[in-house]
Structures are given as structure tokens and as C-alpha cells.
Amino acid sequence: MKHLSEITNRLIGQPMFALLAKIKEMERTGEKIIHFEIGDPDFDSPDSVVQAVKNSLDNKETHYTNSMGLWDLRQEICSFTEKSLGFKPSVEQVLVIPANAIIDFVIRCVVNPGEEVIIPDPGFPTYRAVLNYTGIKAKPVPMNPNDIRKAITDKTRLIIINSPNNPTGLMLTKEEIAEVVAIAKENDIYLLSDEVYSRITYDKVHYSPSIYDQCKERTIILNSFSKIYSMSGWRLGYAIGPEPVIKKMGLLLETIISCFPPFIQRAGITALKYDVNERNKELRRRRDILINGLNSIGIKCLKPDGAFYAFAKTDLTQDEILERAHVAVLDGKYFGEQGKGYIRLCYASASIDEIKKAINQIKTIL
Predict the structure, then answer these.
(1) Is residue 349 helix, strand or coil?
(2) Which residue, 86, 131, 167, 360, has most beta carbons within 10 Å?
(3) Is 343 among the domain residues?
(4) Is the pLDDT of residue 114 over 60?
(5) What pLDDT band is residue 273 in, cutting at 50, 70 and 90?
(6) What is the predicted pLDDT for the residue at 2?
(7) Same domain, yes or no, for 157 and 246?
(8) Among candidates 293, 341, 337, 287, which has minimal Cα distance to 313?
């Protein structure tokens, strides 16, 4: 009898996609479900971005390109970084790559099986999924400097932070970021800063650890076009980091998928120039209605500082809410031990009317 590899036996994937598949089956039978389960904004991709990819296709940009990414896009990312973070990386520090793959590629390039990576708890499930299949040990801790410092051992090779955080929406302060940077430097380990939600903030300012070494020594930035520009289906993201790490990540990309489609990269150049203020205003409105609504029916939930998730404490389970209230949420247990007893709701994927309706439907089953 043929056997599968040990790696395949350790693959766990992303729980939100398994739930989405179940919901699609329910909808095919005629059930109406309000979606909060997956981090996919219901806004359309900007018209200018769509037009950019059409123009690129009209110009016959359908062939192989540089595995590291289009020079024009990498230059634009450098300029965008200078405006947003205050330093300008070199083009050689930039790799154009799907954001989810950055987690995998960084881990495989800087950590060996049997070594350790500190990850946020609660935190994005892909961190744990990658570590699980690669045979690298996950050290999940609450996202604060004290717990990170306590988790350091002689086998620690990487710290992952995510601010604003998925699933809580909480953000690290300037002082906390500085302390995490100091911990990484003292122990001579890499620091991966997941900044996918860095442009979705409300009342606090996003701080990046990259300002301390300009991504030249140990800091690696993970960023994505999926969330803020509503480009989840485009699978476009980028990494900025020390040149030796980025070069090896580029070779991994080259080995696995050769290169990224040039016409999608042209859309990325346009997206970086898009004004996100109106979108953030709408997300703030949705946040306030959802958080106030949940608290009004007895489901405790703090107001997030950024991103677009409510992380609410409740005895109701994901399946109960789906089957009895016809509202799709994601169980907090998928984000780690600290997430048990919570549910995550993505308010970017539901309109204000749907949010109000969902609150009423959940209220009926309490």
C-alpha cells in the first residue's frame, strides 16, 4: 500500500475555508446566511485597479517576468514605504509574493526543524499551520513584550508579531514595539512583523519595528493588498527584509511558481496610490454598530483599535450560531488557547443592515 509523506500528515490548512465550504453547501439548499466568518471585505476592488490590469492585458503583459517582482512595483513599494514608515528600502530588499506565502517562506528560510518560533496567541491560524507541517516548534504567547521575553530559549530563531492583531484588533504601542525589537536584538533572532492591517486603524497609530533597522538586519515586513484594497482574490502581497533573506525567499518562489503574473502586479502599482480614508470611515461605522450591538445583548466585546474583527466572549458556539441564527462566525479556538470561549466576527464582510439583522438573530438564541 502506498503511503503519503510525513509532511502531508501534518497539514492542517486554514479553518475559515473549511467553514466557508460548509456554508456554501447550506446556501446551495436555499438557506440565507449572514457572513462574518472570513476576512474578506465586501467592497469591490477599486475601479482604477481593475482598469490597470485591463490595460496591462491589452498591452500583452502575459509572459514570464522577474521572479522577484516587476521592477516598477518594487520601486513603488520602496517609495510607499518611505512615505508611510519614514525609510526607503532598496529594491533588492523587496519581494512581490502572496502574503500567506511570506509566512511559510520566512519560516523555512530562517528556522530549522526542531527549532522554535514565538507566535501571538490568539493569532492568525496560518502561523501555527506552517510550523506544524514543517516540524518547527510553535511557542504561542499573548502579544506583549513580557510574555515574549519569557518564551525565549536557546532554540528560538524567530518572533512573529501582528499589529493590528487578527483576531482581536488590538495594537502594540510604540514602547512595546521598541521592547520587542530590543528582545530580538539581544538574542540575535529574526522578527517578522505582519502588517497586513497596518492601514486599517481607528484611534491609535500603527508602529512598525522596521524603523529601527530599516529591514536591513533582522526585521521582515509582511504586507498585503487583500484587506485594505479589497483585493483578496488577486493574491498580491510583498515582503521587505534583509537582502540575504529576501534573495533566498525569491529562490523559493522561483522554484515553486516561477514568477507572479505581471498584469496583477501592474494593478498593485495603482493600488498603492489609492486613498483608503473613506473605506476606513465605513469600517469604523460598522465596528461601532457591531460592538455596541453585541454588548447590548450580553455578548462582551472590546472595541478593536484596528483591523476589522470583533473578538467576542460568549458561551455560544460557532455551529450553534450558524445553525440556529443563520449567522456565520469563526470559533476563537482556531486562533490558539487564549481564543477559547470567544468568536471572531469580520465586520468588513457585512453591510450595516446585515450587522443589525445578525445582532437580532443572535439575540433570539441567547
Answers:
(1) coil
(2) 167
(3) yes
(4) yes
(5) very high
(6) 75
(7) yes
(8) 341
